[in-house]
Amino acid sequence: MSSFSVTEPSTRSKWFAGSLVILYALITMVPLAWIMLTGFKSPADAISYPPKVIFDPTLEGYVNLFTTRTRQTDEFLAANPPETWYEEIVRQYDMVIAGPSKFSERFLNSVIIGFGSTFLSVFLGTLAAYAFSRFKIPLADDLLFFILSTRMMPPIAVAIPIFLMYRQLGLSDTHLGMILLYTAVNISLAVWLLKSFIDGIPTEYEEAALIDGYTRFQAFYKVVLPQAATGIASTAIFCLIFAWNEYAFAVLLTSGTAQTAPPFIPTIIGVGGLDWPAVAAGATIFLLPVMIFTVALRKHLLRGITFGAVRK
Amino acid sequence: MAQIIIKNVRKEFGDFTAVKESSFTIEDGEFFMLLGPSGCGKTTTLRMIAGLELPTSGEIYLDGEEISQKPPSQRDIAFVFQMFALYPHMNVYKNLSYPLVSQGMARRDVKAKVEDVANILGIQNILKKPVGGLSGGDRQRVALGRAIVRDPKAFMMDEPLGALDAEFREHMAEELRALHDRMGATTVYVTHDQLEAMQMGDKIVVMNNAVVEQFGTPQEIYDKPATMFVADFIGSPSMNFLPFHGSVAEGAQTVDLQGQSIAVPRQMQGASGKLVFGVRPEHVTLSDTGAYRGEVLATEYLGTTQIITLDTPNGALKARAPAGQVATVGEKIGLGFKGEAVTLFDENSGRALRSELNEGIVTHG
Description:
The structure holds 2 protein chains of 2 kinds.
Chain A: H1 11-38, H2 43-46, H3 60-66, E1 67-71, H4 74-79, H5 85-91, E2 95-100, H6 103-134, H7 140-149, H8 159-169, H9 175-199, H10 204-211, H11 216-227, H12 229-245, H13 248-253, H14 261-264, H15 267-270, H16 276-296, H17 298-305
Antiparallel strand pairs in A: 1-2
Helix pairs in contact in A: 1-16, 3-16, 6-9, 6-12, 7-9, 9-12, 10-11, 12-17
Chain B: E1 4-13, E2 16-26, E3 31-35, H1 42-50, E4 57-62, E5 65-66, E6 77-80, H2 92-101, H3 107-121, H4 136-148, E7 154-158, H5 166-183, E8 186-191, H6 194-200, E9 203-208, E10 211-216, H7 218-223, H8 228-233, E11 240-248, E12 254-257, E13 260-263, E14 271-279, E15 284-286, E16 292-301, E17 305-312, E18 315-322, E19 332-337, E20 343-346
Parallel strand pairs in B: 3-8, 3-9, 6-7, 7-8
Antiparallel strand pairs in B: 1-2, 1-4, 4-5, 9-10, 11-14, 12-13, 14-20, 15-19, 16-17, 16-19, 17-18
């Protein structure tokens, strides 16, 4: 295209913009790539200097992540030859596998708490947003401001009162406690995001459903909800990312049964020396669910971010 | 099919009164127009009949049953929205079947009914399409189809042609009227377009500022306006108003305009003070002999007729004259008025004075 166009960027500026985006993507992806590669290195390779880009991949990190190991005497080792491939990996260091580590348990906690609080935030947020959007609520603006004001300081600023309160209520180190906490933090975001989405859905759709013989609630879930799917999906991603990555409260309020993966991963470091490959393996596995969830919903997410910018 | 009676209906939104005590009757099978400028309360009235708003006070009878506080689902009234409001996540077939599904109708019957309606509207070939890609006319037809599919007692239409372009609107208006004549269903239709109202309606209610100004057939509304607002709103160009100071006695058949005695319908009501002489442009004739004279300011050629704007001693006036009539700007021409078509108004109240012409139409005063 040689002709001059006002709206269409020139080929050169497209190339320039494209290169910038690629450069930025590379920069942000280096740490991720580093973590993923380190997960497949041996402990020696992981700390070698200069860093090794080409190395013999090993699953040592992953084996160490999922197991606890003990050192054994030569007699014991000679009497019990390794039976599995992961047993063999451990034998290099004269160790045997004593049992599974707590990682899978902690990871499951993360899943329960992350998805549980996301579901609850989005569920309550959708109902509240619909009410704020459609009904005449006395002091609606003040209530919305109040809901937003819960986000005006970092949540961790109220960590001590919450810690004391949770101890009194017996919510410390419970799944329910963590789900409630993350929901409380996320719900203001959910209400505000979803309200703007629902505001954008013309009321005529519901009115048409009312006329067609449906009740208000049927109109809500049969007509409004499908329309709000995009908003609900993008809100869910934001809520999940927060709940999944949250570290400070998790450290403070969980230690055993309800501990999530973020506070657990660093504790790997303390087991048997600085086991960087195991830490990296844990971080890699930890990243996967949010990545999959985000990629699966990325269409919605993009529309969600630009929502309101362009009116159809 | 049903008669709808609106009785003293009033609607307030907080401090704002959208509709003030309105009463009128929509007969069974009528194509009824709610006409007025935007913000006059016509859409609110329509929504109250449908149940999308509940009146603050007053009664609405559908087929003799009082329904004013019932939810829309219990009224058996269909509604066609201005922007059509087709369910965007469903295809045409699902949109059409949705009102039937809510009634728990059997699948087979739904299918038969939807196909029936699709045939009437000529949309059989788009049933499987999503509504997003449809043209304006097809959307309109689907919206109509969704309304007629369950044979409701009455149809409410909120400016259904407003979203179409001018050319297509004409065509759709005809189609709509033909559909109505075929089904004979009571239809209430909101519009701000007086031409559309005149063209399609059996009866018209003209509303302004939350008040019903007049209620009658298009002919009555046009020929015998009850208020200056109606006279001004209906007709293009609208009725001429020549304000004058004077008095008319009961039984009078002339008024005095600038010393000229001008014929009017026999008055049933005396009045004095600030009065207005109202005459439609087509009832003004240009004649050299006329004693009441005006100066030609402009002419607009319209093909078969022309609109001549004149300056008279009582203000500007438009006359509709045959296109062949010669009128030069600046020329002074004598004017004649078709006496039996004149309406006199009281300027302060804006209401028509009762006369032989509007007897039985204008009851106030």
